């Protein structure tokens, strides 16, 4: 922050910084923890992950076998 920052500017800036109190996880894909997971959109089995598995709409058939 700038040296001449006002209290009002500091309050606004502090509201804009995410903290563990302000962040809420809305979805944890079933891919998390899978040994075939290679990142956000790819895996060893499917290459590009099917969206229905990433969004937990359907159960991944590979996860039950692991």
Record the strand order, biggest sheet: 1-2
The geometry reads as elongated
Extract low-pLDDT stretches. Answer: none
Distance between the first and last residues' Cα: 49 Å
Q: Describe the largest sheet.
A: 2 strands, antiparallel
What is the radius of gyration computed over CA atoms, rounded to a whole number of angstroms?
Answer: 20 Å
Number of DSSP E strands: 2
List the secondary-structure elements in sequence, H or E.
HEEHH
User: Helical residue percent?
Assistant: 25-40%
Oligomer: single chain
Structural class based on helices, strands and sheet pairing: mainly alpha
Strand content: 5-15%
**What is the arithmetic mean of pLDDT?**
81
Number of helices: 3
What's the structural blueprint in terms of helices and strands?
Layout: H1 7-16, E1 42-43, E2 47-48, H2 51-54, H3 61-65
Antiparallel strand pairs: 1-2
What is this structure, in a nutshell?
The chain has 66 residues and is mainly α. It has helices at 7-16, 51-54, 61-65, and strands at residues 42-43, 47-48. It has a domain at 23-65.
What does this structure look like?
By secondary structure, this protein is mostly helical. It has a domain at 23-65. The protein has 3 helices and 2 strands. A two-stranded antiparallel sheet has the order 1-2. Strand 1 (42-43) and strand 2 form a beta hairpin. The chain starts with 6 loop residues before the first helix and ends with a helix.
Summary tags:
single chain, elongated, 66 residues, mainly alpha, two-stranded antiparallel sheet
């Amino acid at each position: 922050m700038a040296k001449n920052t006002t209290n009002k500017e500091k309050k606004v800036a502090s509201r804009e910084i995410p903290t563990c109190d302000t962040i809420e996880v809305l979805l944890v894909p079933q891919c998390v923890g899978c040994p075939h997971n290679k990142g956000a959109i790819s895996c060893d089995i499917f290459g590009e992950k099917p969206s229905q598995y990433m969004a937990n709409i359907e159960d991944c058939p590979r996860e039950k076998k692991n």
